[in-house]
Amino acid sequence: MSLEARATVRRPAGVSLIAFVSIVGGMLQLIFAVVPLAGGLLGVSAGGVLFGALLLVLGAATALGAAAQIWFGAAALRLRPWAWKFGVLVSGFNALVAFVGVFASGGAGDYLGLFLWGGVTFYLTTPSVRDAFGQAVAGRDEAQA
Question: Alpha-carbon distance 72 to 9, whole Å?
């Protein structure tokens, strides 16, 4: 899809919702990343080097995940083509993790995560959403050419 044609595409409401939730969730996750980072700094300075280092790594990973969520949300609001690929990759990975969790622990959170992340993955792969992000739909786009 050309850049001019993409400029007239309306963002689907579901994409706006996913982007909003991603940005807000990323901001909350960033706040929660401060706790292990601060604990890690205190642990290292107090002499608990191994535990402090573990908390620092955990906090950094949490902050990195939060930044990725915010980055995705902002790009999804702008319908950037790479945001679609990133969103499908992340939601598919989270659905897989929840699927494994269903068999590992069977907790309600795992079932909820599987339902939600599976739904997001399915929604992002629908033809109308793929079109909004400028992603070709195999079979259909070749027939129109």
Answer: 19
